[in-house]
Amino acid sequence: MSEETKHFYEFGPFRLDPRKRRLMRDGEPVRLTPKALDLLLVLIEERGRTVEKDELLEKVWAGTVVEENNLNQNITALRKSLGDSRQDSQFIVTVPGIGYRFVADVRRVDGEVLPQKHKAAPQKDEKTSGARVFRYALLIIAPLVLAALVYAWYTREKPRPAVLSIMVLPLANLSSDPEQEYFADGITDALIGDLAKISGLHVISRTSSMHYKGTKKSLPEIARELKVDAVVEGTVQRSGDRVVIRAQLIHAATDVHLWVQDYEREMRDVLGLQSEIAQAIARQIQIRMTPDEEARLASTHPVRPKAFDLYLQGRYLYWNKRTEENLDKAIEHFQNAIKEDSSFAQAYAGLADCYNALGTVMVSALPPIESRRLAETAAKKALELDPALADAHTALAYVNNYNWNWAAAEQGYKRALELNPNYANAHNFYANYLMSRGRIDESIAASNRARELDPFSLAISSQRGFLLENARRYDEAIEQLRAVIAMDPNHYHAHWVLGHTYVAKGQFEEAIVAAQKAVDLSQRAPGALGMLGLAYGLGGHEAEAKKVLNELLKLSEARYVTPAALVNVYIGLGDKEQAFVWLEKAYQERSNYLAFLKVFPIVDPLRSDPRFDELTRRVGLR
Predict the structure, then answer these.
(1) Domain covering 304-398 in this structure, CATH number
(2) Cα separations (Å) of 460 from 6, 94, 366?
(3) How far apart are CA 239 and CA 462, in angstroms?
(4) Phi and psi of 387, rounded to 5°?
(5) pLDDT in tens, 342-353
(6) Is the pTM of the predicted complex or chain greater than 0.85?
């Protein structure tokens, strides 16, 4: 007779019976899947020692090929059954990037020796004996078969809910330094950017994602507001030159976790880490990718940690504020990032975006021909380093757009959208291009697409107001701009566009109020002053318009003043001769203003003059 020793493991309120494969809590059974129970048994038998992930996979899934995700899902299920948590673990501790360790005190309780029974001798009456054996077997086997069928039903691999749209919630900063918040935001944005490269997936842009930072709304609520199928959330922890990211994918409508994974890398490999997470998510949602998309996601370039840090600060502490002062600070950070790592393409793309912004009529810190020359150099360098960088293609298309290289501009925007079909800014800038060419319906459609991808971006919504104004849909434009101002009463761009929309509609007193607010918010920027002078002049306030004109002329002796501001004031005063003088100056420096000559309502008083047709032809709009 062979013998088997019966024993139990006790920890906390739990008792595990390895022979019967049963876990009890305070005398009540705890439901565990077979693999979760196998994991628990291995961890308990190796208690106090970190068991590496590969070792767990080999012991629990011996002889089969499975992804690490299966291990993570079963660990998560096991923790849930134990009432444990990763953040405050009583039983199972995660050792990031390595494996898991069982840390609770475990007591082994030995029981009695159980004899192995001999087979019963055959009965004399074989018919009676056979029937008895059959009935006995039926009584034993039938419940087992039923139990197996029930288990198979509940543990069968359920079909994954379809995921065609997704958002990434701002990753939580678990670093001890609260000033590392920008780093967590930057990782969030990079992950969004990688997912956005997948054409079959609708990805909500960063601005709208950040709208939910610290929100108390439930995931189903967020999903309904943004019309997405799934949400990615997680944490970022930075310690020296290492970073740990935990990401999880959740079906938004049901709040069901579809996938969770922990990653740990050196900071130098952080771009590759983000790409790896994006690829894992794509596999989980079973989204179809083209070979080019797969190649772009897999292609990453190591970056020096300090360069990456400077880039994130430039983008997320300064660039987004879009004032001259903050753009200058962003440029300084991007330049320092390039000094640290001259092969870092994204830093050059950041420079290009800054230079393009400095030359606009709204900011007017540099002559546009100079700002775009600097932007072009930076964008081309970025593309030399990374030909698939959509940000750089967009920045270069912007340069061509306002330098009136119309065919090159459209080609550049389309290439950017091929590389990153979810890049809201590319859709937004392409909408401007289409409007300037008089392709009004296409422009509004592109603007609508940008807003779908980034519904909480005030910049995109304000620009949409500008496009609606140029489409002569004034009431819709005003409604759009008022909605932006309701969300941010101090949004300079919205007040500025609202001013000339009211001018176009002939509501001059309302235009004066909006333009004055823009002047105050911008600390009397030349572009805003020009709009105020236009509103005063057309509204019959000639003396006030001339005061604005004199202020601009005096200001031009000390700093750069966009000729567009003077054009607007002279239109307001009805002085066509001087308006054309300053339009010629605007032409010589390739002002952004001239790109919209074909559609801009404000220049309507000049359209009947033959010089206007000639200017439109020279710009390439005829």
Answers:
(1) 1.25.40.10
(2) 69, 42, 23
(3) 40
(4) -65, -15
(5) 999 999 999 999
(6) no
